Amino acid sequence: PSTIYYYKCSSVVKTYEEYPFDSSRLRFRQLQTQFHHVSSRVFHFTTPPLPAKKEMPFTPVNLALVGDLGQSEHSAHTIRHMKRFLPTAVLHAGDLSYADCVHSRWDSWFDLIEPLSSGVPWHVCPGNHELEIEPNSGSVYTSYRSRFKMPTKSPEIIEKLDERNPARHKLNKTCTPSALLTVYDYGNSFHSTTFGQVRVLFLNSYTSSQPGSRQYRWVHSELRNIDRAKEPWLVVIMHCPFYNTFASHRHEKQEIQMRESLEPLFVRYSVNIVVAGHTHAYSRSKPVAYDTVALDSRAPTYIVVGDGGNREGHDRYYNSVEAEDW
User: Fold this and answer.
1) Catalytic site residue from 92, 239, 249, 280
2) Mean pLDDT for each 10-residue chunk of the chain (326 residues)?
3) Which terminus of the chain has fewer CB atoms gathered within 10 Å of its CB, N or C?
4) CA Rg, the chain, in Å?
5) Residue 259, CB half-sphere, CA atoms under 13 Å: how many?
6) What is the three-class DSSP state of 274?
7) Does residue 103 carry a catalytic annotation?
């Protein structure tokens, strides 16, 4: 904890070089295999501090919150803005690269975020743009699962989409539908980590969160066992917002199920902040529980940070005349 580590990435690259071959009857060119060792420059990062003990001084942390980043000029501006504040870590509420089944776009996205991601932890949870449904096999989250490794205690459990799933028959329109439920648990689907006195849970809006589901049991266990004396701040990161003041992504089935199942746990265990994306705008609620402002309780504050810079632009208000009470 609180230690600087230096590292670089290296690889052996195979190349082919042509050279001429002569004979009395035949002249042609052959390929000669060569191997080259390539290496990056040296990077460094600092590991986050541990929770403070009573006899130890408090170590502040600086967490960058972002969602729906994409890879536009606005995305690059967001990355530069976050970097200026020297974050301890980046907490990304889903919709990362907007590759949308063009897998080379994942490479260009990692190039875009490298100035920041090479020096700080970048924690993620899946959004709908990580689904990337493959038309022939029905596989989901393939690039997301391959390119990240979040801290988890259990191996992933994942299922392909069944042939009868309507999403399999709409791939000519999109491979990243915004309303869908899959089977994807553990692994990069949901995880938790600690930064100093802040405990952070990352959830998957696109797998089941009903009581008895793997995600529900995991969330309940995490919340029940947190020592708030050591980790007084409790933050949840997910993609689909429970409280949405904007016109798009209202009342989607995965958001309804998740809210009905998990909001009681968030209120019961006094979650401080819930961060989401999905709607391409920024909003912050008052402390709210079950659609009611709860200033006299430990209800969560809900923050939407879906304005990271993706190519789809900003959302408009659902009701631009009168705001909700919360």
Assistant:
1) 249
2) 91 70 51 77 91 73 97 97 96 98 96 97 97 94 97 94 84 88 97 96 98 98 95 97 94 96 97 97 96 90 96 87 88
3) N
4) 23
5) 20
6) strand
7) no
